[in-house]
Amino acid sequence: MASSMPCRTHVKKRNVKTNIRLILFPMIICVLLVLVQSLIDIELDKSKYKCGCICVNNKTRCDDSEKVCGVQYSVQIQVETCAVPNPPEWPPLLQLPAVSCKTTASCSFTMLFTANNHSFGQSVSKNMFPSALTMNYSDNMASLAPNVLGSESMTEVNNLHEPAFTLELPIYYLQTQCPKKNSGFSFPYQIEGTIEQQEIKCAQGIHSWRNSSSEIDTDLYKGYYRSNSEGRINEIFSVFDFLNSNGDEFNVTVWYNSTYKDNTNLAPTTLLRIPRSVNLISNAYLQFLRGPGTKMIFEFVKEMPKPETPFRIEIASLLGSLFFTWVVLQLFPVVLTSLVYEKQHKLRIMMKMHGLGDGPYWTISYGYFLALSMIYMSCFVIFGSILGFKFFTLNDYSIQFVFYFIYINLQISLAFLLASFFSNVKTATVTAYIGVFGTGLLAGFLFQFLVQDPSFSRGWIICMELYPGFALYRGLYEFSQSASGGNDWGTDGMQWKDLSAGVNGMKEVLIIMFAEWIVVLFVAYYIDQVLSTGSGKSPLFFLKGFQKKSLPSSKKLSIQRQGSKVFAQMEKPDVIQEREKVEQLLHEPTINHAIVCDNLKKFYPGRDGNPGKFAVRELFLAVPLGECFGMLGPNGAGKSSFISMMIGLTKPTSGAAYIQGLDIRNHMDGIYTSMGVCPQHDLLWESLTGREHLLFYGRLKNLTGSILTEAVEESLKNLNLFRGGIADKQAGKYSGGMKRRLSVAISLIGDPKVVYMDEPSTGLDPASRRCLWNVIKLAKRDRAIVLTTHSMEEAEALCDRLGIFVNGGLQCVGNPKELKARYGGTYVFTMTTYSDHEKDVENMVQQLTPNANKIYRLFGTQKFELPKDDVKIANVFEAVEVAKRNFTVFAWGLADTTLEDVFIKVVREAQAFDTFS
């Protein structure tokens, strides 16, 4: 097991250039981002993005005395970058809940209050709202301060701009009662020399008593909207609890709505309009003590001065979520196509048939892809950090490592899972890339908006993150938001302490991905065992240890024999003898016979209206060590189906077969360690050399060190793959004959005790075929070889015994001489004359033997079968000499029965019997 661990690395070493290009892909992307960032920086250095001086009142030309410098409110993009040495003064506002007012008179906002002293609370709350609007048009902005103003606009992170005055939303002034005919008015104000207009409307301020704070809780948390008797909607904008306050002591709690405290995930906390509420209640209490003429006016609010800052857009942070999602997902098609390639070209099962178990295969493959992915992601982070992207430098590297490590493991596990359902590399590649780009687009243009929408259910967000692509995007989105905030506001990006923040989704993403990694990995292995490993396993294979033990083989044998005696009467004696030999071996096991097949059957059910077919029927066969058993038969006779069962590609329908005493139904993993296979079609890695193939499979057979090197060199020399540097050429550049010789060398390396060769000499020239035959003859001395071929010459030269298969059944078995003697028994006499003398030839043959059988006739050429018991060769020669004196003889010949004649005869008899039956 341990010796096979380096195999994956050895197989993949020819992909070094491809892997280097893959690893350099993040660097290319980062360099591209740097170039894009440089172009953006050049654009942002233009004058329209810089702080400067402009003419007021929309003048195109003006004197320097008429210019205003600093923040230009007509150029909104300059607000965040320009120096503001003297920020503007804004009137204090209440934060009002959003409400749709069809008419001015319908607008009302509710304030709840409670107190231990009811009369005190009522008296103070009456002083909250004035009964009329007071304005001093000589100083418009200052005149707004005594009034109770509020806005539905959301605040920002600073007060350089008051959104209530810059957005197209009205400002409300709250009174105890609005005029019946009140459509509001346009309020002019001047900021930095620019005159603007602001709409101001009246809204009724309602103070509503509650008996206790628990009742307030009910109103706040069981229904935000409350309908009054007039059908209007009362909006609660603030709550006051006077507690134990009285004329001597002022103790109050102010409740406010903090829903919009954080407008965006991980953004710095926005300003809150709480001071106006505190001033409102303080002013009401002061009027309760000193009378309505006493007021504590809240004049204005003002932001702190700020220096000029450059306007920059961090392209990596802005595009990170979508762009980097695609970069990370590029690994998925690489892993998936590599796995499907090995499956499509049967390289996986080829490795398994030569001893590489599922456990080592998964360990080696998973480790290889994990190492490649970690190098890829490390280069991604390192290149990005070297180039100065805040996306990487501001966020804690340990968080990035944990996030990427968990995700690439999940991605590899997912690739293993999906590889079980693909059998074609092109289909897998197209599907994978559609998934990559589709995931990025859906995440960027749908999922992100749902994440940013505070009204969208968090539970549904978590459900969507169960899809690994969305989980990846959410994690990168959190990194991007942290990097953007850190770049703009000087924070430290994402730290471990930030994961506990309610708006940060990184914690849930890590938990989801880790749990999915474990689940998907186990599911992938389970499905791989059931669907993709040769003949597959039972869906309940993991319960094998708890299942009841099967009946002893002797009991099963007696049961099987009951159904096979009828057919036995129609079998040839040699086939019956082979069956009896198998029965004896099953009752008296011996290590001399490497292969024993006991009533082996393979039935394919009918489909689409076609009847079912027995590919292999009632096969009894025993092949000892040191024997090469040849399988002959027409196409479709069942030879390939038999080999497929023996090497574990398909399961037998019934019966059993034993290799070195191990049952193919239950112990294929053990059988693979002592088995070699030369398949009908060459299963080779095109990127590996012949020598590397033999080194790879030699390690699978537990060959190491000098023993492995010696075995590889010997195999290359024996099969004529050593000269001219052929051994060190990539297999993809080999001719068909070279590939066949390499496949034979692979099947024999490591001294396997059982070897299956499916037409090994196909495509070889005569010299190479003769060389291959010599290798097989030497190899069969200490192992059992099962060989299929269509060459009768090859069968006679290599095989100790032959079996002829027709329609899935074994028709005869024996060595070539026995078969020719048993099924031949005739000479083949051929003579060519003029057509006029064909009758004379027939008369001559009838004189030799009346039992002659004419088997061929064409334009004067005739062939006859002459029983050996009826004629002598000398008599044939004498008859021909007499015939030559009577008519013209162009050619004649007498030949013994060939193996090809035996094959044709057996096949015809079997097919005729099947047709008759």
Summary of the model, kept short:
The protein is about 45% helix and about 15% strand. By secondary structure, it is of the alpha/beta class. The protein is elongated, with a radius of gyration of 46 Å.
What does this structure look like?
- Mean pLDDT is 79; it is low at 1-12, 73-77, 224-234, 263-267, 486-490 and 546-569.
- 44% of the residues lie in helices and 17% in strands.
- The strands form six sheets. Strands 4, 5, 6, 7, 8, 9, 10, 11 and 12 form a nine-stranded mixed sheet that branches.
- With 917 residues, the chain is an alpha/beta fold.
Annotate the secondary structure layout.
Elements: H1 7-12, H2 16-44, E1 52-55, E2 67-70, E3 89-90, E4 94-95, E5 108-114, H3 118-125, H4 140-143, E6 149-151, H5 163-166, E7 171-175, E8 185-191, E9 194-209, H6 213-221, E10 225-227, E11 233-241, E12 253-255, H7 275-290, E13 301-302, H8 315-329, H9 331-344, H10 347-353, H11 358-386, H12 390-393, H13 397-419, H14 425-452, H15 458-464, H16 468-489, H17 506-531, H18 553-562, H19 565-568, H20 573-587, E14 593-604, E15 613-624, E16 628-632, H21 639-646, E17 654-659, E18 662-663, H22 668-672, E19 675-678, H23 690-700, H24 705-718, H25 736-748, E20 754-758, H26 766-779, E21 784-788, H27 792-798, E22 801-806, E23 809-814, H28 816-823, E24 826-833, H29 838-848, E25 853-858, E26 861-867, H30 873-886, E27 889-896, H31 899-916
Parallel strand pairs: 4-6, 5-9, 5-11, 7-9, 16-21, 16-22, 19-20, 20-21
Antiparallel strand pairs: 1-2, 3-13, 6-7, 8-9, 10-11, 11-12, 14-15, 14-17, 17-18, 22-23, 24-26, 24-27, 25-26
Helix pairs in contact: 2-11, 8-14, 8-16, 9-13, 9-14, 11-13, 13-17, 14-16, 16-17, 23-24, 28-31, 29-30
